[in-house]
Amino acid sequence: MEEYETVGWDAITKECERAYPGQDNPLHYGTLMSWQLGGNDPLDGISIYDGGDYWHFITYGLSELYEKESENIEYSGYGMEFTLKLKKNVKDEDAELKGICGILQAIARITFENGELFKPYEYLYTGQTQGMDIEMKSLLTGFITIPDTQLKTIETPNGRVEFVEFIGVTDAELQSIINKECNVKELYEKIGNDITDYQRKSKD
Fold first, then answer.
1. Given this model, what pLDDT does residue 30 score?
2. pLDDT, tens digit, for every residue of 140-152?
3. How far apart are CA 103 and CA 84, in angstroms?
4. Phi/psi at 130 (nearest 5 deg)?
5. Whole-model pTM?
């Protein structure tokens, strides 16, 4: 068995354990077949920490988790990992957790295929009209991004990694940004927190 250095992976985990002390065995959804071997999911895995009234998702795979491969010494891989906090007011928790993992994999696929970087205070308009929840009943159809409020930017042996948090927003809220009625920071202030809540209505 060839052993791999996991310095990047370990650095992410260390920061998560700083934010959530005592949670050294979080829920974790790994990828069966890696992207390099032709798999469909670009992320190596997603850990989920218990934040009390929400689940906190953290991705592994947009940064360099193992040995340093890129020539950019300042940043690790794409220089980011994704996070999301899902409020626990859902019917089928297991299905919704897997649903969010699928969404994060899909967003990461955009980066892997197109090289698109996601920075804080941007929006992601999916064009879909159905909710992002399993039952497709939520009003949330897209996202805005902020710097994660729990996890700090880290310096790893492979370079810097920033945690970019996605917050679910409604089509009406996205349209207000697209129409320049407000910007992402203003919408975030209106929402009043960083938790993706499938029950939430639009903020006027």
1. 85
2. 999 999 999 999 9
3. 10
4. -85, 150
5. 0.94
